[in-house]
Structure formats: structure tokens, C-alpha cells
Structures
1.
Amino acid sequence: MSDPHWTGYVGMATGIIGAITGVAGAIMGYVSLKKAKSIKSMDLRIELRKTISELRLKLDQLEKLIEQANGSRKAVAAAAGTSSSSMMDLWIQGVQADKIAVQKLSTETPTSKNDYVASDFKELETELLEVHQIQIQVDALISKYNTALQADKEIRDHLKQQSTAR
């Protein structure tokens, strides 16, 4: 029987080292993946809670904005002599419908007291999308009433110009 050559020992040693390295790499990859998911979930929880807080603030501002715009529209209509017009009736109906919509959106919006620790990645993603959809509706209403206030300002300015021209 011949003596084994030294290259066989080297090959066997590098094979064992490679196997150990492969197993260690797989374990480290799994741990890193779990850590990355945990960090991503934490980021989503923070983003969700931040978005909910901002949305709650916007909802409060929207309620005040609706009242402000409604008062402004009534004052402009009184100054223009159109208080009992069908346009004012439509405005009042729209304001009432928007108040109901704001109440509905407010009840649909989760509270920021929930910490979402038990929620997994998909649940957080779904919740964030739902809150974002509510935020889009709130932003549309804010834009509507800001535009109405701007229109009232222009009418007010026009009425002032007419009164000073007389």
C-alpha cells in the first residue's frame, strides 16, 4: 500500500473548513434576515404611528376649517344678497355631508395609542395603506375648503371695489 500524498490531506482539510464556513454563513444569513425584518417592522410601526398622529391633527384642523369656510361663505352670501339662493342651499348641504364624512373618517382612523408590536410586516403594511387612503380623502377636503376660502376672499375684494367705486 502506498503512502497517501500530502495533497490529499490538504484537500480534506480545506473541504472541512469550507463546510464549516458554509454552515456558519447560512446561520449568520438567517440571523441577519431576521434582524432586517425586525428593523423593517420597527420602521413601519414608527411610520404608521407618525402618519396616524399627523392624520389626527389634520382631522382636527379640517373640522375648524369647515366651520371657518362655512362662516365665510355665509357672510359673503349675505353681503352679495344671495343668502337664500339655491347655491347657498347646495353649499349648506355639502357642508353637512362633509361634516358627516369627517366624522366617519375620524372613526375609521386608528388611535395613535396602539403600538402595533404584535403586528407582523404585512399587517403593518396594510394598516399604513388604509391610513394613507384616509389621509388622501382628508387632504382633498382640506383643499376644497381652502379653495372656497380663497374664492370668498376674491368675492369680498370684488364687493369692496364695487362699494368704493360708487
Note: The helical segments are 6-80, 86-108, 121-165.
2.
Amino acid sequence: MSPVDVGAAGDFPADAMTIVKVGDAEIGICRWGTEIFAIRSRCPHQAAPLCEGFLQTGLSAEFAAGELDVQADAGRPVILCPWHRWEFSLRDGTSVVPGFRARTYPVRIERGRVLVTIGRD
């Protein structure tokens, strides 16, 4: 499918989610550092408005020598569902809950415009 122009790159503030309508779908656009992401605003758990949730740096945890080591991973931006706080990666939609994945879309900036490729769901 051809990319859809969803607006000027400057219309999307850093570290914030902006919801745009593409056809019948609501898509969240987020600039995080030098990257830009597009994710469907529908939680795969119970259809909550995912992009009304909370953006944050993902956390990673390791259990070693009887201690839990939790660290922020700035390279892994996530969104937390506003209903149940389930975490989904902005990069690929994966969740820490097995079997659940949010729909993500390829996105790029070209000539100052944000282009999202919306494929079949």
C-alpha cells in the first residue's frame, strides 16, 4: 500500500503521542529522540484507546545472585495502556504479556512530511 501523509514533521512534538485518523483507523505518531513511530491506537487486550496511555522508557530486569536488577532502557520506548498499564514497544508492538502485540506501521520522514504505510490488519 502507498504511504499516507499524516502531517508535517514539526506537527509532532518530541516524546509525545499525537493521534491521527487514517481511513477508519486511529494511529498514534510519536517522535522519540531521532526516531519516529506509528502504532495503532487500539490495545490488543481489551480494545482500550492505547495512544491515550503513557509514554516512557522501557525497563529491563535481570535476576542474578538473589537480587533483582531493574534498569531503564532508553533505546526501548514503550506505551502503557491507559486501562490496565500493559506495556507495548513503540518499535515493534511487542508486549511483556505473551500472545499480545500492538499493531505498528512503517513510518518515515520525507521532505519534512511524515509518511505512514498502512497495510492490512
Note: The CA atoms of residues 100 and 106 lie 19 Å apart.
3.
Amino acid sequence: MTVAVSYAELADAEALAALFAAIVAPLDIYNEAARAAELAKFTASDFTRLIAADPSSVIVARLEDRLSGFAITYDEHGPIWLEWYGVAPAARGHGIGEQLLRFVLADAKRRGATRVWCDTLTSNATSIALLEKLGFNLLCLLPDHWHGQDYFLWEFSPL
């Protein structure tokens, strides 16, 4: 199966919003308040605004030309913040998450970033394993960090 990773285009906004909702809505690792907050934060108009403001901010993966994954980043004028990455349930098991994160890391280096930061729920074993595999360092535990949930803060450095 062929996976292509690239920057999102404005025309991807509707499909990105639908994919984001399909990934986040059923997540059992999020509590209801967290899920609702994220679904409200990433609509088609939000993706349009993000892509228009910074064409490097949203990265997409296509499996056999079908939108199957995404990563959302923010340039913090030094560090890059990895806000989200996700893979459609039906497309998991093809290395798409790893390809997305490898693209984010290469892109951060191209952009002259000093590091990449992200957080993950302490219960998200799949994400934790991938971050460790790619060389992210666990910085600290953030207890009761967001909507009453515990998170780990991660850093990838140097670029």
C-alpha cells in the first residue's frame, strides 16, 4: 500500500474536519469534556484558517490516495508544538503515524526549529511507544493537566 505524506491544502479542510471527528469522537482515552472541546476546536473553518495562516501547520497522509491521517503543528518561534496527530481507524497498522511524525521532525529541522514539543495522555500507550521509538524524551508528568486528565510532556531535540 502506498502512503504519501504532504502539507494539507485548503481543499482538504472539509475532509480533515470529518477525519478529525471520526478519530476523536470515539476515543475512550478522553473524557467527555476533553472530547467536546477538541471537536469544537477543529472544524472545517478552523482547518482552513490554520492552513491559510501557515501552510506548514497541517500535514496529511494519504493511503492509496485516500486521506487517512494528519498532524497539526504550531510554530512557536523556536520550538514547534505538535498539537495533534491521528490516523483513521481503518488505516492503522500501515505505519502512517510514524510517517507523519517523521515528516513533522524533518519539517521542523527544515524550518530551523530548536525542538519539537508535544503532550500525550498518560494512558495513550500507542502514542507513548511511537514517541519513544522516534527519540522523544519524556520531560515530566503533568497531573490533572487538562480536563482533569494526566499528561506527559515530551521533547524531541536536537534537530
Note: The chain is about 35% helix and 35% strand.
4.
Amino acid sequence: MTIDLHGYHIHEGWRKFKIAIDRAYYANHRSVIVITGQGAMMYELPTWAHNHPLVRECRQQKYNPGSFSIKLKKKG
């Protein structure tokens, strides 16, 4: 699953991130790619992911710094 937040204002991006992560988790996705672009949201996303209770891991993509791989926790 891919979430494209590029072009959103930071508060709208944060809201869409939370909703999309919840939906991905309950749809049994194990990972999500989040595209932020290379603006302010790129620096905020790791904090959002760290604070979200369903996120296990967040890694910035090497080939594209405006893209992140998010691993979700297992349903239990």
C-alpha cells in the first residue's frame, strides 16, 4: 500500500497519515510506503510514525529521501 502525502499542508498530511495507517493495519497490510516529498513533512514523518501505536518501524528510502517504508505491528 502507498500513501502519497506530497503536496498536502503538514496538518492535513498528519491527519491523512494517521487514517491511512489505521486502515492499512486493519486491512492486514504488513508495510506501507509513505511519500512525503522533500519538504517539511519529510522531517516530521519519523516522529509521527514513532508516536503511532500501530507502527513497528520507519525507514527513509535510500534511493528517494522523500519516501519512507513503514512496517506495521502484527495484529494480536
Note: The mean pLDDT is 96.
